[in-house]
Amino acid sequence: MAFSVSKDFQGKGLGKILFAKLAEAALENGIAGFIAYTSPQNKSMINLFKSLPYTVHTTFDGDVLLLTCRFDETK
Ligand SMILES: CC(C)(COP(=O)(O)OP(=O)(O)OC[C@H]1O[C@@H](n2cnc3c(N)ncnc32)[C@H](O)[C@@H]1OP(=O)(O)O)[C@@H](O)C(=O)NCCC(=O)NCCS
After folding, report:
1. Residues with CB under 6 A from ligand 1
2. Does the residue 27 lie in any domain?
3. What residue's CA is closest to ligand 1, atom 45?
4. How many domains is the chain partitioned into structurally?
5. Which of 14, 17, 18, 48 is the pocket-test mutation for ligand 1 (most atoms within 8 Å of CB)?
6. Is the C or the N end of the chain the one with fewer CB within 10 Å?
7. What is the tens place of the pLDDT at every residue in 14-70?
8. CA of 8: how far to CAs of 13, 14, 30, 48, 58, in Å?
């Protein structure tokens, strides 16, 4: 998954709401979890991913950080 929030609206909780809506839609459609590729410097995406109620697994794919979670692995 990948999405962005317009700069003027970042840090206001929209990313968190979008993420929860995407998880809800994914669950309804039989999708097991999310995978996101991001820069290791992208603290807002990393923090956003980790603020959700799922266990997050992190690994590197070359220079890129790979974040994964499954909806059946809650914290
Ligand atoms: C990543 C992105 C989608 C987050 O959306 P957002 O609406 O700004 O995020 P939210 O306001 O919902 O914040 C969610 C969590 O992220 C963290 N966060 C948000 N902005 C942050 C920042 N500037 N620095 C560090 N952490 C941040 C907070 O931990 C927050 O949790 P909290 O509510 O418990 O404090 C947004 O910053 C963005 O569009 N960035 C550019 C595009 C991008 O990088 N997309 C992801 C590609 S994989």
Report:
1. 2-5, 10-16, 36, 38, 42-45, 47-48, 51
2. no
3. 4
4. 1
5. 48
6. C
7. 999 999 999 999 999 999 999 999 999 999 999 999 988 999 999 999 999 999 999
8. 12, 11, 34, 17, 29
